[in-house]
Amino acid sequence: MKQSIFFWLLCALFTAVCVCIVAVSRADHGVMAIAEITTPIQKAETPSASQQTTSPAALVNINTATAEELCALPGIGEATAEKIIAYREENGGFDDIEEIMEVSGIGEGKFDEIKELICV
User: Fold this and answer.
1) DSSP β-bridge partners for residue 61
2) DSSP secondary structure string, 24-59?
3) Separation of alpha carbons 92 and 28, rounded Å
4) What is the structure's pLDDT at 69?
5) Alpha-carbon distance 71 to 75, whole Å?
6) Are the C-beta atoms of 114 and 73 separated by less than 8 Å?
7) Residue among 77, 102, 74 nearest 88 (CA)
8) Strand, helix or coil at 106?
9) Hey, what's the torsion of the CAs at 66, 68, 73, 76, to 10 degrees?
């Protein structure tokens, strides 16, 4: 009798450990965890095409941005922001975002960091 109870307790413990291992491994790989499985699944809204891309309002317009707004970009400090403003004033603004690489201190590497965050 004692062996039978011990056997079933051991089986229950083994099952619990297996469930935990599977839940952790699935959660690490982006698969639903146990808590997600036990809750009702709701249909997720698919974002429209305009919601999937970065909206122009969220981008920094390099033709109109203040020095403070330009400094919010990665790798752009006060000195570089002032150079950007000086360049656009001297040249009548930027025709495209790639032209920002004409500003002293902005090369391809820095441009790659900010190109998704700026617009003209």
Assistant:
1) 119
2) HHHHHTTSPPHHHHHSPP-PPPPPPHHHHSPPGGGS
3) 51
4) 96
5) 8
6) yes
7) 102
8) coil
9) 100
AA letter at 16? A
Tracing tokens 């891309």 back to the chain, one arrives at 53
pLDDT tens digits, 57-95: 589 999 999 999 999 999 999 999 999 999 999 999 999
Dist CA 87 CA 60 (whole Å): 16
Q: Is the pTM of this model over 0.85?
A: no
Give the single-character DSSP code of 77: -
H-run or E-run covering 21: helix 2-28
DSSP 3-state of 73:
coil
Nearest to 80 by CA among 112, 107, 117, 119: 107
